[in-house]
Specification:
InterPro entries: 6-PGluconate_DH-like_C_sf (IPR008927), 6PGD_dom2 (IPR013328), 6PGDH_NADP-bd (IPR006115), HIBADH-like_NADP-bd (IPR029154), HIBADH-related (IPR015815), HIBADH-related_NP60_sf (IPR051265), NAD(P)-bd_dom_sf (IPR036291). Belongs to the HIBADH-related family. GO terms for molecular function: NAD binding; NADP binding; oxidoreductase activity. Keywords: NAD, Oxidoreductase. The two termini are about 35 Å apart. The strands form 3 sheets. Strands 3-4-5 form a 3-stranded parallel beta sheet. A 3-stranded mixed beta sheet has the order 6-7-8. The protein has a two-stranded parallel ribbon with strand order 1-2. The protein folds into 2 domains: about 150 residues, Rossmann fold; about 120 residues, N-(1-d-carboxylethyl)-l-norvaline Dehydrogenase, domain 2, CATH 1.10.1040.10. Helix 8 packs across helix 12 and helix 11 packs antiparallel against helix 12. With about 270 residues, the protein is mainly α. The structure holds NADP nicotinamide-adenine-dinucleotide phosphate. The site of NADP nicotinamide-adenine-dinucleotide phosphate has 23 residues, from helix 4 and helix 11.
Length: about 270
């Protein structure tokens, strides 16, 4: 995701400095015109805006602490970090006098590469124009949602819907198979009706093919479902449905599919 963002900014003529923990993954961006840096501190030297796109809040906090951007720098945090994660990062920004915008994104690898993500931005209104201009090359839509943290809250709601829907698709297909019904009949049955969703065909097709080219990695889905369960628990909402889905994602990841697409959750559900 980080590489896709950087490439879109470079294509739009923006100056981009990048850092990634595993240097070999950032290095190809030099061919696109990025300044590839050896440390987070080097990457933020002289910039007015820092964007983080890393796995989780722990990784983001570590990178920002090492980077130590200058006070007053705009920090647009685009990773999915959950409610507590966004609060932790906002506190880190406040300690360091950074202008924090919580801005998780909706959309997988392809929309990221095409610059058609939706950004769920929340932060101080004074920087709204700057954030919208920044997001022009990476997003089809920027939703400005108010106080920092609202973006991460809405993102978790979406993650809950999405993760449960993918796990439910897997369960329906596996159930059909287990009951001796052609699983494709389920997809055909819902097609075009009120029970349909494009994702059932996209992810269900991958499940039935047993091929999981990564649009959104399974380990990321497991992380996101754990964030949903934590946030739901704190909010007094029963999260048992999502907890069951989280366990299935985690089991499929442990089964060797961590880097595969989240559709590989099917491997933890299907008939043995
Ligand atoms: N992929 C999607 O479809 C999608 C969609 C929406 C939101 N997101 C969110 O976007 C974020 C990035 O996802 P991704 O798909 O790009 O994941 P990814 O390909 O697995 O990349 C994860 C990144 O985090 C870095 N990282 C992990 N642990 C770290 C640590 N402890 N310290 C420093 N860096 C660390 C990795 O560095 P290394 O290269 O060194 O491992 C890598 O740069 C996640 O929060 C994800 O939930 C993803």
């Amino acid at each position: 995701m980080g590489s896709a963002l950087a490439r879109n900014w470079l294509r739009a003529g923006r100056a981009v400095r990048v850092w990634n923990r595993t240097a070999s993954r950032a290095k190809p961006l030099a061919d696109d015109g990025a300044v590839v840096c050896g440390t987070p501190a080097e990457a933020v030297a002289g910039v007015d805006t820092v964007v983080t796109m890393l796995f989780d809040a722990e990784a983001v906090a570590g990178a920002i602490i090492d980077a130590a951007p200058a006070p007053g720098t705009l920090w647009v945090q685009t990773s999915t970090v959950g409610v507590a994660g966004a609060q932790r990062l906002a506190a880190l920004a406040a300690e360091r006098d950074l202008v924090f915008v919580d801005a998780p994104v909706v959309g997988t690898r392809q929309p990221a590469e095409q610059g058609t993500l939706t950004v769920l931005a929340s932060g101080p209104d004074e920087v709204r124009g700057r954030v919208e201009a920044l997001c022009g090359p990476i997003a089809a839509r920027v939703r400005w949602l108010g106080a920092a943290g609202t973006g991460s809250r809405l993102k978790l709601v979406l993650n809950s819907w999405l993760g449960n829907a993918v796990a439910a698709t897997g369960q329906a297909l596996a159930l059909a198979d287990g009951l001796g019904v052609q699983p494709r009949l389920f997809l055909e049955l819902i097609e075009g009706g009120p029970l349909d969703m494009a994702y059932a065909h996209l992810k269900g097709g991958a499940m039935l093919a047993g091929e999981y080219p990564t649009a959104f990695p399974l380990n990321g889905a497991a992380k996101n479902m754990a964030l949903v369960v934590a946030a739901a628990g704190d909010a007094g909402v029963d999260a048992s449905l999502t907890a069951a889905a989280r366990d299935l994602f985690a089991a499929a990841a442990d089964g060797g599919h961590a880097e595969a697409d989240m559709a590989a959750v099917y491997e933890a559900i299907r008939v043995r």
